User: What shape does this take?
Amino acid sequence: MEVPYDTHPHCVGDWQRWSAFLRRLDHARVDPEAHGYDGAYNATLMTAADRAMYLEFMENPPRFQEIAGERFRVPAWLHFIQQEIVGAPVLVLASKSCPTSLHQLEWSRIKIQVAGHACEQREFFAANLAIGKGIFERLIVLERQFYQTAIGWDQRDNSDVEFYREALRQILPLGVTCNKVGHWLLEALYPLDFTREAIAALVDEKFENYDLLESASLDQDACFLAILTANCD
Assistant: This one.
């Protein structure tokens, strides 16, 4: 695993913590066919700490899907919460207008809330990109670093962009930069230069349109890569 755990150990720690909890929760199961919170577990079989963790789990399910190639295990009887695990970071190719040179991609017009509690809105076209192995955990680290910071909200202060660029150097693979698209930076919208180096570092080579991306005319005035995450408000 390439995640910089030396400086960001919380991902693997969280995975171990929640996995152990879910194994304990399995022993407190009451109704294997439970479809709601009530009756899914027997509180008398749980410690006070585990009851508190259960409530935390239901209110804010862990986002990451796997660590070091091992799937995050959710008991089958908790299948009904899978639909609540939303907002996981994604990598997209973004454009203010729908590009004609990359029409093979599946573009959608989206509107998202960004900038933390400032609650700004941004609209653009986006095409979802499949990420390579080990990248998801890095996106989680980036999300956690800037969640509730409202980074980029004051565009008059270039220090936010410089701080963000340094974070990219520490968290994401070599070759991923933000030298030309820093004006897009806001909490929950993390822009990256659309370069062949970034594509090679982040996008899964098995992605259907990987070759198309690498051969595209990389017009950064028209398109940029972006990591979309949860906004704190």
In short: The CA atoms of residues 65 and 151 lie 26 Å apart. The beta strands are 66-67, 70-71, 90-95, 107-114, 120-129, 189-192, 223-228. The chain is about 30% helix and 15% strand.
